[in-house]
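Quick one, probably user error.
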């Protein structure tokens, strides 16, 4: 099966909408690969921070993105041989990722790297432009949303559970600022693809959200 014919489920949406969790659960049920595209932007931001490169230095940031020494492993994410799985989930890195993701040359540098994840038996890709830019031919495109308050509370609980200090109001303000930046950027702004199905998970459990995505996917398959 050539890469172009491998099925893709694209799950897009704003920060902390639960894309990553849902993508991993769906991929696990199907036995498919998973792409956390946001991790690539977080890794780019982290690499720039470690090298004291300003996040608005377009050419330098794009150069970093094109040369990332990254390995994804079920036990962690490695940058230059170091496990940075926890580091890239810090709020400062997340905000940095939103900044570098607005840079056209950075998105171009990471585009083919993302498409290379499309391998048999299939791929579940989560991000902000999976259905609109990276995999426009995805068999199913889901735009996962939740209220800003619900997303801030989820992120707060995640950080507390991992032992990080967090302030709910600060998280809410940061999240709203990132939403605005992601939706207003010139390059690949955040919006649902024309053929995407919008799923509001504000009042849904993880299992309920996964079940809806799976039902939509099964509905896309040929009868019989």
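Nope, works fine. Designed sequence:
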């Amino acid at each position: 099966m050539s890469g172009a014919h491998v099925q893709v489920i694209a799950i897009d949406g704003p920060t902390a909408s639960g894309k990553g969790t849902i993508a991993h659960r769906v991929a696990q049920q199907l036995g498919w690969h998973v792409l956390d595209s946001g991790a690539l932007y977080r890794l780019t931001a982290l690499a720039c921070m470690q090298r004291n490169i300003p996040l608005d230095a377009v050419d330098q940031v794009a150069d970093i993105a094109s040369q990332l020494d990254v390995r994804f492993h079920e036990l962690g994410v490695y940058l230059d041989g170091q496990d940075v799985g926890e580091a890239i989930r810090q709020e400062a890195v997340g905000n940095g990722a939103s900044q570098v993701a607005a840079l056209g040359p950075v998105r171009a540098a990471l585009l083919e790297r993302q498409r290379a994840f499309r391998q048999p038996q299939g791929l579940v890709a989560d991000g902000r432009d999976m259905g609109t830019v990276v995999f426009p031919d995805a068999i199913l495109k889901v735009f996962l949303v939740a209220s800003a308050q619900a997303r801030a509370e989820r992120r707060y609980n995640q950080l507390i559970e991992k032992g990080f200090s967090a302030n709910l109001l600060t998280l809410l303000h940061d999240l709203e600022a990132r939403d605005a930046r992601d939706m207003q950027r010139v390059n690949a702004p955040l919006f649902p693809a024309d053929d995407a199905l919008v799923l509001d998970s504000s009042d849904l459990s993880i299992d309920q959200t996964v079940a809806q995505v799976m039902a939509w996917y099964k509905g896309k398959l040929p009868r019989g």
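Strands lie at 8-12, 33-36, 70-73, 76-79, 82-83, 123-127, 140-145, 197-200.
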